[in-house]
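question for whoever is on the cluster today: can someone run the full assembly for these? three chains, 1431 residues total. i dont have access anymore since they changed the login thing
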Amino acid sequence: MEMNARQHKFGMVIDLDKCTGCGACMVACMAENNVPFKVDETNKRDSITWMRVYKLTNGKPYPEADACFLPRPCMHCEGHAGHSPCVSVCPATATDYSSETGVVSQIYTRCFGCRYCMAACPYHARYFNWWDPVWPDGMEKYLSPNVSPRMRGVVEKCSFCYHRYQLAREKAIYEERDEVAEEEYQTACTQACPAGAIVFGDLNNPDHQVARIVQPDAHHHFTGHSKIAFRLLEQLGTNPKVYYLTEREWVRKMCDQYNFGPQAAGH
Amino acid sequence: MDSALFPKGVKRCPTWQFALWIGAVGIVLLWGVYAMLLCWLKGLNQTNMNDYYGFALWIWADLAVIALGGGAFFTGFLRYIVGKDELKNIINFAVLIGFICYSSALLILAIDIGQPLRGWFIFWHANVHSMLTEVAFCLSCYFGVLTIEYIPLILENRQIDRVPFFHNLAHNMHEVMAVFAATGAFLSFFHQGSLGGVAGVLFGRPFAFREGIFIWPWTFFLFTWSAAAFGPCFTIFLLKITEKITAKKLVKDSTVWLLAKISGWMMLTYIIAKTIDTLYWLTVTAPAAGYGAGFFYDNWFYNFGWLFVEIVVGGFIPALILVSEKGRRSPGLLFLAVLLGVIGVSVNRWVMVLQVMAVPVMPFDTWALYYPSWQEVATTILPVAYGVILVSLSYRYLPVFPNEMELNAAPAQAEAVVDEELPVQAAVARA
Amino acid sequence: MKLDRRSFLSFVIGGAAGTALTPLPWKLTDDLSIWTQMWPWTPVPPDGAYSYVSTTCTLCPGGCGIQVRLVDKRAVKIEGTPGHPVNDGGICPLGLSGLQLLYGPSRVDGPLKRTAGRGAGRWTPISWDDAIGEVAQKLAALRGDGRPQAVAAISGSGRGTFSALVERFMTVYGSPNLMRPASAADACEMALYRMHGQQAMAGYDLENADFVLSFGSGIIDGWGSPVRMIRARSLWKERKVPLVQVEPCLSNTAAAADRWLAVAPGTEAALALGLAHVILSEGLYDYNFTAFYSAGFEPWRQMVLDGFAPDQVAQITGIQKDVIVDLARQFAKARAGVALWGRGRGTTPGSIDEAMAVHSLNALVGAVNRQGGVWALPEIDYIQWPEAEMDATAANGLQTARLDGAGLEPHADARSLAHRFFTAVAEGKTDPVEALLVFEANPLYTQPDTATVKKALDKIPFIVSFSSLQDETSAYADLILPNHLYLERFEDVAGPAGLNQALIGLTQPVVAPQRRTRHAGDVILALSQGLGTPVADAFPWESFEACLEETLGDDWDALVANGYVARPVSLPHWSSAFGTASGKFEFAGTYRPAPLEGDKGAFPLVLVPYDSMRIAGGTAANTPFMTKTVGDEILKGNDMFVQVNPQTADSLGLREGLYAELSTPRGKARVRIHLTQEVRPGLVAMPRGLGHTAFDPYLAHKGVNVNALLGPVDDPASGLDAAWGIQAKLAKA
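^ ran it for u. tokens below:
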């Protein structure tokens, strides 16, 4: 079916065994998306980081200690049939789940700042502009025209660099092509990651690397095919489109929340 | 000086004393207004809210006052729809408290949102799937209803009533009040429920999430039920305080006992339902999402004590007092019961807002505790001060209590406002 | 007027409906809401024509290719260059946030002259002519005095044309006192010089290695060319190439390694020799290499067999004997095993014995000059300038002893010993230094024991900084002649650190200079003109760009177009591979436990610095974006946490988050405690790169500069700074 071919489901797979925790993805994201910064950003609960790298530790004593880094963009949850946790709660339709791309969008000029979506998001992927964005004199020169800076009092979050998709699509249309090629639309974090730990693409397109790695199982809530794949808080039913890979069992057990409950043994 | 404005045949304190009282509360009000302006002009960075606490003290205060203001719709429902005529003696006061609670709630919401002028977008770009949309619509409409219910009372002021137009207007409004009471009950059912739904639908937050029926989680019904149960408690609670301060009996005991009895049975049934809900959630819903019961209370601050206070201390105990005839007829026990009830429902709303934010969801995250900034505290006290002023003004100039004259027939009964009692009232009314 | 119910209802409903039906209230409300979307104080970036410029990042010695996205003439984003041999599109946090330096508040606006006490931060802007005139006058006077050696320079720009220009300038001017900031590269060079007999850098063929043994090297924490290292490590993951990390604490590299050996700190060399012992005694070494291409094998072998049996080494290092034996076998049996050294990012040189011990381990398994091993790469020799004419003043000046003692007995093979320069000057043991020129270096922050550096600077009456940014050293200078930032200037980057390729990268202007700056190369040309013959004659170029273009010759056009040229490297034939007296590889390196500075009684703990990719620890300092990524277990407000094992903390009565005073023989600091099982009991770990006092409010005064607490320790075998930590004490504050 012609229409079905156009139903994209952009997603990501992050190899935690490759991730080094260097933070390039975080900075790439800030630079790409005109994310503001303050003099003091050490209160991490008031620090806008669309992409945030968490450090996980296995809790064992020295020298058995182990650590793992986990980059957390917006998961662009599909929920059940597009009912992502945040989209369904927004009273002003300022955030939306696109069935065409699978991207959870945020309309900054529509958002009136009730922060209900933040309460709904278990991943803390949403950030509120508590402050007016202020760039030191002259630094606003580096701001990209492709992403509008957000005003005080609205919520913002990772958009999977949607503006890049729009630019790529415009180019494709101009060149009279039907589709945006895999390499034409990549997020800033994917592009920057020195470890090549992030793979981004269309989960619906079997030719895309991300789909080949993940092989989401449509009959089982889109869980990944691989034994080393998991999704963060899988059991909540948020149906995220960001998958993780790791050989380390303690990381998988910790993250998909199968450490408790009926399925604990089976996973 | 202003005695010409007093309702017919009642005694009120001297003007200077009243002015002093209003002045004192007014200072608190101005403090709150200052904080409110800071929040509007400088932004919400004035608060201690953060990205983990998008919902904080204000939202709790909002939910709490709406629950406590539930006395208006439920008393109206009992009076006009069920036909408990006895309750006409307290309905004005219930409406007044409701009006204060709901106007406060709207004010708090207007401060709470980051772009207050864009609040319009809820209506213009409404998302029908959102519980908050339902809340916003029903809340605004119900506030309109409460205004309509409150206006006739204003029009009954001795001087205003002299104007034939206003007299007729008030009369006509009274005539159609049953329609509005019904509308109010209907709207309240939905927005109280939707407020419960606000937390209950958060399937990403296993502490809040509840299964339910159709689109409504169980918290939807529990919130409506608890507002109906505890709202009248709050009306009685404030009545008792007002009586204490004015040193007058304002409502007949039989009226109060009737309301207390109904409230008590509502509370008892509610708290049983709430207990079932809690047990089901702890043993079925949460484990299915990967969380054990102990997980949610594994914190020095948020421990099982909260559950005990909410369900036993603020639920079963007041409910049992009120359903027993002996209990509700004892002034001391009655007051204790309504006080515990007010605490119980406030704890419920606290937990459903703030503990939801505090519990870590991602396994590598930690408990997030927060304390409000002074600006938040001030803006939360602002509606209390505003409420005290509105009650004082209404009591002084409007015939809020139809039985006041007959209940205080003895001329020796001198009313007094004792200075020491001022802070007491402010403190208690805050709850 | 009589109002019945009907008319009342009609009145109310009609009125409400009437108003609601007019568009007025709705339109006004909507307009009000829309107005809030266009607040004038929220910037709206102007759109324009998009383009990219390819250039090379010089913020670290990594030499990554970058492409800068432009919107009209504004640079809006830095990205890694796809297909670049170093980074293939990848990029690090520092490289990504370079635009925050370009347009940031810590730029020096133009030439500045100090108007109050040093470090007081009071400056007056002066013209470029006056600034250059003032420096030229000072230099001319000293030269006229016959004391050109009283001018010292420190240049951190690494290898390349600009560096050569500075060197040439100092030579024809007549001063031997040109230094570079110390780093592991110093020890690397020296080790190769001693063992290969060549002035060369180590190039690691990591992409072809099949077993990697790292002695504390921060493979993914900034060692070598950071992005290339991270890429290599991902490649190992894909190919299941084991990475073994030998390190006292769980660094990110240790956590990423397939195996972490929590070695007792400072005993890495012993472990290397213990492994050699197993390899030697079990006959697992490369017979061909040791027999035909090496010298000094027998005595070295005997030394290892005598002193480093696995059970002895287990005692020293705390690594179990069977672990040592097992690891040695795996390493030796690997087809292409390679061992790396240089702690963390390689900020300090470290012990030369250790470097040589690890390099000997490489030689033992035949990893020297082999695919998947370590290669000695001679410097790329494209800088071919005619010999400069020198006058007697210059010749005499150059005859004088270097103030840092490099090149003189007992450190004849040292090329630069910056730490000794500052110590010597501070102690007043040298002839007075009359002027110091600082190029792309920030010794007042990056040198261990900053108090001594400051004391040294206090004794130098004329300090000129060429820094583009307001760093600590320029804040303490007398004149600042700000260079263009790397995105505004031409420069060449030769042979990125640790890369086994002959690669030249070109840094070229991406935007016009944003401030009143001038290329330091042009300033040197102008200074030489100011000094007249014969200095001026050595610099025939009209501009640095012209000099660079001439120097790079035929490669220039390719460089401008692509940002780099790669020349093929062929491994040298064995007959010409070694320049030693024997013509062969010389086995060397041992373990001599070097005591740390400080009394163990008074300072029972050991402070060790660590490196993180999120904190720039060298001359380049953190950008606001980078500091934003630093975790709150490291920095909270302006307070910095030291990382301590709970066991250590318990014994001192310290708990998570408490304030404590950290003291060492060199200084003290107020810190907070963070408990972690990642740090070895007895150690106090502290990140390098915080505690700046200069730059901008986004960085200044956040945390503590670990260099203020550390001190250099002379390696008796090399003269280089061998300190990897310092004795320390923690007490409740």
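summary bc i know u wont read the tokens: The interface with chain C takes residues 115, 117-121, 124, 164-165, 168-169, 172-173, 175-176 of chain B (CB under 8 Å). Residues 1-48+371-395 of chain B form one domain.
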